[in-house]
Amino acid sequence: MIAWRVELVRIGTVAPGVLRRLAAELAPCLAREVFVAGATIDPAPAFDPLRRQYRVDDLLLALLDPPPPPGVKRVGVTNLDIFLPVFTHVLGLAQHGGPVAVVSLHRLRPDEPEHPDPSGVLRRRLLREVLHELGHTLGLVHCNVPWCAMRASRVAEEVDLKDAAFCRSCAGEVGLAADCPCAGRDPGDREPPRVEKEHEG
Amino acid sequence: MKRRAPHVLIVDDERHVRESLSNWFVEDGYEVSTAGSAKEALQVLATRDVDVVVTDIRMPGMDGLELQHRIREVKPEVAVILITAYASVSTAVQALKEGAWDYLVKPFDPEDLSRVVAKACEKLRLEEENAALKERIAASVPEFVAGESPAMRRVLDLVEAVAPTDATVLIRGESGTGKELIARLIHAKSPRAFGPLVAVNCGALPEGVLESELFGHEKGAFTGAAGRRKGKLELADGGTLFLDEIGEISPKVQVELLRALEEHKITRVGGTQEVPVDFRVVCATNRDLEEAVRAGTFREDLYYRINVFRIDLPPLRERREDILPIAEHFVERYARAMGRKVSGFSQAAREVLLSHDWPGNVRELANAIERALVVCREGEIRPEHLPIVRRTASGAGEDAADLSLRTVERRHIRKVLEICEWNVTRAAKELGIDRVTLYNKMKKYGIERPGQAGN
Lengths: 201, 455
Known about the structure:
heterodimer; A: 201 residues; Collagenase (Catalytic Domain); B: 455 residues; alpha/beta; Rossmann fold
């Protein structure tokens, strides 16, 4: 098993509880240590006044300063609308095979914002997107299995179609043991996703 | 076999654009190259197997449009996607007219980029698949064992000449000469090769059934016609219709067939609506159609309609030099299929093959060899392995009943050679011919000194 752990970093004004809850869900899912960094990254230098959005590649550079210690995957979480030049927006971005990634909650929010996310939709989307970007930092590319966390999601609703798990092929590729909670079903399995379907109030 | 990931080449003079797009495509599982200018892009294209080029239009030096033109000249199969600012959309549209795959206006939704590139890759995949299928079809041209005789070379020349046209072909030949194989060969080498080849044995069906088989029928057209059914003429739409034993069809069906061939329209049995059909017709018969026309059993107008281009298949007995090569071909084929270690024919077996008249032609020869391979498990095929031996060896030895000049000559030459202890010079002198002529005749009849067969 590859020894790596996850560091969650706030970028801008993200409520500390969001990262604490995310860490609490991510750790058992990955069966790895997940901790929240004390420091917060200032996103101001990544702001593009013309587009009134934040350049995600600049945020990745900020996460690399200083570089994470060996074996640490550093994931920045932000409320800001992020973009890459030429793209209107992105939901997140990772340094492919590298140590850093960014996920934005901005476009993951449901159309009718509920505060503070009583149905848990946003929380579930965040968990899946963080798993997705972590997969990229581990070298995974997009996967065609509909419920795999590595399936590309262009819009928030597509994130809801995925499990909080990698398909067996993706999990195997990054050395996640088959009994790891995030190592999911075989791509050929047709059973319904085992993802929690609660829409609790 | 796992397909390689499609290769995307990103061309933009702005580094951060290249990096953004590169990162995106890598995450999507593409193989990615980047170039900071059109010139650099052409260098990459010259050395790498690129599937899709995503290029900015405005670049210093050669712009994206010029790059697209160059790519079309050297690698027209590569899909070019242009990235443009809103102001140059009209330029991008012009580029589309000149063959670009698509364009995106900056900034664009990542979903749009993924969709456009995925579609381009799908198009390339389908084109590759199409090319592979074409190759497979070309490779699946029916095997026609022709032999090397001048008569058969002439037949194959005729096939080559007529196949690319849409002309109606009439193939004449005895049973077993390979008329259907010739029809399939014509179809396979024609522009209709991707369409169906629909074969109908006109002699095997009674009039009513043949009519319904050819033209189809509507629901309730006759007892048992529970639903509408397309006929063979409709099924051959876009392809070739092969009418075997055309000389056997009844006068009524002849009239309907003539109309269908002339008007390229049919009416299903029990129907009133005309259905347009587009097929090429290849007919075959072993009957003397001219005689049938004279006797009034075959319509003259239909005869001239189908006899546009005629191919006569000679019977095997009229091209005896083909017998041994064809027989050897079948030995090889059946030995491989049955896993037999059979090396060929004994001298005596060769003589049996050469002396037989093969009334069933190549089909009979193929069946004889297949049977011989069943009986002979290894070594050489000998006369007793061949079904024809039993038929002809009922008298005093092989071919005793065969009094044709060829057989008698072959037998006599062999006898003289044996008397002369296979001294060819002496045998030629005895026969009153020169040595070269004797060698030619020995070759023609497959006569070899015992123990030298196969050398």
